[in-house]
Amino acid sequence: MTAAPGGSQARGSWGASAVCLSYDGVLALDGVSVTVAGGQITAAVGGDGAGKTSLLRCLAGAARPDSGEVRRPDKARIGFLPASSGVYPDLTVAENLAFRATGYGVRADVAARRAAELMEQAGLAAARDRLAAKLSGGMRQKLGVIAALLHRPELLILDEPTTGVDPVSRSGLWWLIASAAADGAAVIFATTYLDDAQRAGEVLVLDAGRPLASGAPDQIVRALPGSVRALSAPPAGQAGERAWRRGAGWRVWCPPGVASPDDPGMLGTPAEADLEDAVIVAALARQLPELPRGGGPAVAPVQQPTVQQTVVPLVESMAVTCRFGSFTAVRDVSIAVQPGEIVGLLGANGAGKTTLIRMLLGLIPATAGQVRLLGEQPSRATRRRIGYVPQGLGLYDDLTASENMAFAAAVFGSSAASFPAEATVSRAVPVGQLPLGLQRRVAFAQALAHQPDVLILDEPTSGVDPLGRTRLWQSIAAAVQSGAGALVSTHYMEEAQECDRLIIMADGIVVAAGTAAQIIGDARVTVVDAADWATAFGLLERAGLAVSLAGRTLRVPGASPDEVRQVLPAGYRVHTEAGTLEERFFELLGVAAREAVPG
Q1: Taking the model in full, what pTM does it have?
Q2: What gap in Å lies between CA 564 and CA 567, rounded to an integer?
């Protein structure tokens, strides 16, 4: 292994070649290669235990590979954000940045100007004297990224910077990340979410320490072997092994040679594959040789529930308001979850989602309005019919997975359910020692074991790999298709597409409700195609326009093509595209904020 001294390598040559790394005989990385180019963003994608953190630690010089080569600048020219955010909770925001500047050897006056500039741009200026322990998760992550950027590093390494972060904070983080790349830094970040990976110019997909796919997102999609078909229901037989739920429908992978695309008997209809499909196919291709080849369906069709003439909502709030002293957390909110549907609850931190959920569960009383759970006032009896996965998972760390299951069965008065094979590594390992993604599968199995009528899930799939995430959503869909209802709180627009309806909250009120398509409507956004995206990004940002990076293109919501053309020199292609759910989400939040201002 070699580490290049600062300045001796051409800009953009940082990375790793055929790196192998093991911990106590357990292989964490197996022949992984990646190039992190200056002025570009690279995403390392995979679930918990895929090897993302191990790769980033090798690049940062915190871990020494067993074999292979690592090319990096001098450590003083590296900026590193660990998964824990790397800030000191008992120091203020300003003190954290001053301490980090000292460690990097940045002059105090230079560091103060740089810190003030970054805090202002990231929306942390008003919190400069607040203890880091008192910051929200998103604000802590922004502080960690700013600390890593203070000395203008040549290589910026970020370990899951957006996991568990609300959409507003995530937007601010992405602005910081794109700004660093536009400034010339080589950026690599780890994530479990493909909507984050879509923002990167290059993507490396890892699974169990081995590379599954690499390249630009469109290159990975084009390299997908065979074809993908769309279906309205899960297929039976061996095709079920290659199928996964996608939104309200299903996708199935047809490998080369399985069937000809023009075969009239081929399943479903052709589907235009995207990065999510390509990553899932790559995982399936690796797993298929190990899957049983029996004739039974891997995903059994589920009977649709019988629809009654009058359906009583499983969960319902009617003009509920909740106040804590003079603060109103939820104001005049009415929602309903019917049998057989998945309702997504979206909103930034402080929007009122958690307070609403706690009222629906009967854990806190409503100041005004009414709540109905399974047609009556929330009580212990109704809560027995709920499957609840809180963001903290609700597991006992010192019990094994099976012991957690047995305890939950005793609490709900049900028989102990058999444990899904994929949800545990060893029955002797305490849950607290399992990877986060595996802990989430345990929490899911525990919530579903008593066959609840209602599922209430708070950030249910954080840390789970893309294929594992689709399997968890299949579990949710199977319960719903059997007549249950689900209310799912999520920060990720990618997951919102799995819901039948969406409810968006801001400042304690509902600002939009309906399907994703209904909420997006005919919204359009201005897009800039630019090989030299960094120059265009800087010009647009200095003009005061909101701009975000999406791979190798720039999206400028809220500005017309003419406004954008006035800022950019000739040569850039400026056009419009359909808006995304995330862009519509921010538009709605902006409207709500303006309407909340008196006057």
Answers
A1: 0.77
A2: 5
